[in-house]
Design brief:
The structure holds two protein chains of two kinds. Chain A is α+β, with helices and mostly antiparallel strands. Chain A is built from six helices and nine strands. Chain A has two domains: about 110 residues, 2-Layer Sandwich (Alpha-Beta Plaits); about 70 residues, Alpha-Beta Plaits. In chain A, β2 and β3 form a beta hairpin. Classes of the chains: A alpha+beta, B alpha/beta.
């Protein structure tokens, strides 16, 4: 299973650069990274997927990330119950004659057609990775010309790990669970 | 209250003074001119040292920081001034040394336009700094510099760079120093050990028959000498040190057995391999310490007390990880530790030591002057009480083997990065803190030629330093590897030296050349009498090698020992009392 990390980072110039540099420097394999504003101003929330199965190396990735000064908190959610989504745009070459067939397929996947040109159609969906992979496979006969896809976003089910703007420090403790993490990784 | 109109340039110095910095190493240039102009107003509080190359400035700040435990400060201009700092930043990064480098940057309006002497130094130095800043708003300048010092010295220390565009230095604001406490959510102090961890640790020590303490640089940074010695004495646990751990525990202590690793003592490596418990204190299982990872101390359980959680379980799997400050954790452990009896284990290590000592070059007759003998004489001639700064290579390993350090912060050396050219500038930097101890810079002929330009700085600043060049006419350590692993093809390792006595003479210094063992101490006495810099060139045997050695990829106990030559018949003179 891949390693999924949720990180709260300060929204400052160069933060992405620092994270990318860390992964490259330490020879960690980053599979995807999604970042956007969080509920707190000045703090972004990231989902990072790393391609690492070894437990010890996973711990190393976790703590190196946490060591970055602009990273406020990190939670490894690889083995926790999460809602996960990826988003995709797919452009296929399809004239009016194929529309019916395409419509049915798209509906079956819960996706939508969002643009129709003379002989092109853009389909979008937000779903779990496996479903999106399957959709792409099913659309192959329609001659796919472009794919634009995000990485994985995850949110842990249940309890909220809220960042209150006044007390980011308290949140860091809440989200980090450092001692627990040390034991999880180290044993 | 206390609001004054100040320029960005003045704010830089205000902040530096607030951090109790009284010496800055630097080199002026276009983009940092406003700061240098403003320096005139702070002459009474700050001494500026004009270096000859910005790499020198970073090593000086580094040497100052290692000697003092305080933050060292270096300054340079944009572009080449800043890029020249990268080696020094990387050196400090690898050895966790707190320095702050302040660089000028082209005006903010032209950033990104490839302006004259523009380089993206914050982008360039991400991998070699703990953190760095580009200040784009004068209102954030003071907070940023304050933060930079805080980041440099907090947790596991490290280098921080602050890049300040020229226009920010020129702007003025109503200034009040930010007296508020620093609130950085991403910088947290490590916890101490939990009760459960302490109990497990004590239980593991009680259960062990062959425990061994690995003493690293963390002991010095955490000022945990007393705690480590107390643990060792209470539970009768022998100690070995890493290269950077030297001085962290007194070499003359009966439970301190010497350095571990590639050129460590055979008996220390043997003890590590046969131990059933390793207690790693503030060290990071570097490859120069472990040898082949798969067979490293195969039968031991391992405890790792370390301030940086990313170092725990990085190279070696440990049974008991403790994330925390070493002094704090050991202060929790020691009151609960009961006396242990490890006599037979200590006796075994001691017998290995006795056996190995007989093969030591120091006890062998040689016609030529040997590097090891020179270092031993320097130890004698300074009563083992000098501040030593070494460079990188054979002389560095010989120093580690033959100069016995009793106090923390008395050996400064580039361990992690192995930066040749470190010693002269680092020694100059250290001399601005260490005013009582004699300072000896021990350097090879290759290393010295990398940064000997800083002789000018040493003379201009009239530093009271002694430079001992161990000249064997080769890049000796590289030559050693060529001899051992490349069938003695000495590709580009013979190196010409200038006449060092004349070179020193060109700077107005009296210098000496020594070729006989008997002349070492008398010449040292002459150098010691001089005020200001002195230089001695020791012409040593060209082909000598550093033994013992663990070849890369070998197990730690598979050491190559010195081939035994006929001995002079005298028994090794043991300085130490036997352990038992």
């Amino acid at each position: 299973m891949k390693q999924t990390l949720i990180a709260l980072v300060e929204d400052k110039p160069g933060v992405l650069n620092r994270i990318a540099s860390l992964f490259r420097r330490r020879n960690f394999n980053i599979e995807s990274l999604v970042v956007g504003k969080s509920e707190t101003s000045g703090i972004s929330r990231m989902t990072i997927v790393a391609n690492e199965v070894d437990r010890r190396k996973r711990g190393n990735i976790y703590f190196n990330l946490l060591n970055l000064v602009n990273v406020v908190a990190v939670k490894d959610v690889s083995e926790l119950a999460c809602v996960t989504r990826e988003f995709i745009f797919i452009k296929v070459q399809a004239g009016p004659d194929k529309l019916n067939e395409l419509n049915q397929l798209v509906k079956k996947f819960g996706a939508r057609i969002v643009d129709m040109g003379l002989d092109t159609v853009i389909i979008e969906t937000a779903d779990e990775k496996e479903v999106i992979d399957e959709l792409v496979e099913s659309l192959a006969p329609f001659n796919i010309s472009e794919i634009m896809r995000t990485g994985k976003m995850s949110m842990r089910r249940g309890r909220t790990h809220k960042v209150s703007s006044e007390k980011i420090n308290a949140t860091a403790e809440e989200v980090n669970w450092q001692p627990e993490q040390i034991h999880t990784y180290h044993n | 209250m206390n609001e004054r109109k100040l320029t960005g340039a003045e704010i830089i110095w205000e902040c530096v003074v607030k951090e109790q910095v009284d010496v800055v190493f630097g080199y002026p240039g276009g983009a940092i001119l406003p700061a240098y102009d403003a320096l005139e107003k702070y002459r009474d509080k700050i001494h500026h040292v004009l270096v000859r190359h910005e790499q020198g400035a970073t090593h000086m700040a580094d040497g100052f920081a290692r000697a003092s435990g305080k933050v060292g400060v270096a300054m340079a201009t944009s572009g080449p001034g800043a890029t020249n700092m990268i080696t020094g930043l990387a050196t400090a990064m690898m050895d966790s040394v707190p320095i702050v480098c302040i660089t000028g940057q082209v005006p903010s309006s032209v950033i990104g336009s490839d302006a004259f002497q523009e380089i993206d130094i914050t982008g360039s130095t991400i991998p070699v700094t703990k953190h760095n800043y580009l200040v784009m708003d004068i209102h954030e300048l003071a907070d940023t510099i304050k933060e930079a010092f805080h980041v440099a010295r907090s947790g596991r220390p490290g280098p921080v760079l602050v890049d300040i565009p020229k226009d920010i230095q020129n702007q003025s604001i109503d200034f009040q120093y930010p007296e508020n406490e620093i609130d950085m959510p991403g910088v947290v102090n490590p916890p101490g050990a939990t009760d459960e961890q302490i109990n497990t640790l004590i239980h593991m020590i009680e259960a062990a028959e062959r425990p061994f303490i690995l003493a690293g640089h963390g002991i010095i940074m955490s000022e945990a000498t007393g705690q480590v010695i107390q643990l060792s004495e209470q539970a009768n646990i022998p100690i070995g040190t890493t290269l950077l751990g030297i001085g962290g525990v007194p070499a003359s202590h009966p439970l301190v057995f010497g350095m571990m690793g590639m050129h460590g003592e055979t008996w220390v490596n043997q003890a590590i391999q046969e131990a059933d418990l390793l207690i790693a204190c503030g060290m990071r299982f570097d490859d120069r310490v472990t040898g082949k990872l798969e067979n490293y101390s195969p039968n031991s359980k391992k405890i790792h007390i370390e301030i940086d959680p990313a170092e725990i379980n990085k190279n070696i799997h440990v049974e008991l990880p403790i994330h925390g400050d070493l002094q704090t954790v050991l202060s929790q452990v020691n009151p609960l530790m009961k006396k242990q009896d490890n006599r037979s284990w200590l006796r075994r290590i001691d017998s290995w030591r006795k056996e190995s000592k007989g093969k030591d070059i120091i006890h062998q007759d040689t016609e030529m002057l040997m590097g090891a003998h020179v270092i031993r004489k320097i130890w004698e001639g300074t009563k083992g009480d000098a501040l030593i700064i070494t460079d990188v290579g054979q002389h560095q390993m010989l120093e580690a083997q033959y100069y016995e350090h009793e106090d923390p912060r008395t050996l400064l050396t580039s361990g992690g990065l192995g930066t040749m050219g470190f010693s002269l500038p680092a020694g100059i930097g250290a001399s601005f803190y260490e005013k009582d101890r004699e300072i000896w810079i021990i350097v090879g002929d290759g290393s010295f030629q990398m940064t000997m330009t800083e002789l000018g700085t040493a003379v201009q600043e009239n530093r009271n330093i002694n430079i001992a060049i161990i000249n064997n006419g080769y890049l000796g350590m590289v030559r050693q590897w060529q001899e051992m692993f490349y069938e003695a093809r000495y590709s580009e390792t013979p190196i010409l030296s200038p006449d060092y006595v004349k070179l020193a003479g060109a700077y107005g210094l009296e210098a000496f050349r020594v070729e006989e063992l008997g002349d070492v101490i008398p010449t040292m006495r002459k150098a010691q009498k001089q005020s200001g810099p002195s230089l001695i060139e020791f012409v040593v045997e060209k082909h000598d090698m550093v033994y013992p050695m663990v070849p890369t990829g070998a197990d730690l106990h598979e050491m190559i020992e010195r081939p035994v030559k006929p001995s002079n018949g005298k028994l090794p003179s043991e300085k130490k009392e036997s352990v038992l």
